[in-house]
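Q: What would this chain look like folded?
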Amino acid sequence: MTQRINRISPPQVQVQQASQTRPKGQAGTFGAMLQQELGKQTGAKGVAFSKHAISRAEERGIQVTPQLMEQLEGSVERAQAKGAVNILAMDADRAAFIINVPNARVITAITQEEMRESVFTNIDGAVFLK
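A: My prediction, written as structure tokens:
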């Protein structure tokens, strides 16, 4: 006696994406300004901020300036030369950033005060920002 097995296909699900447009009045928000500044960066040298890092910087009042972006890019280049994967880029006066070097992506940002009470794990290098 032979049994026949019928396959049941999963139901087809259609996903609609929500519109990503913002009202024009929100152009001055921190996230929008940061993304605009990041958009000015050209070539493979640019450093990007993850959504998490953007929200942490905003929450903690860390200002992301063009000078800071240049310093972060320099730290990534120096870390790449040494073969680092995840670094702590520190500015003793303001803040520190955990950066994934191969992706040139800032993972999180913390203030100087938070640095004193923190233990940093899963990093293989530290760079002082110039």
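Confidence is low (pLDDT under 50) at residues 9-27.
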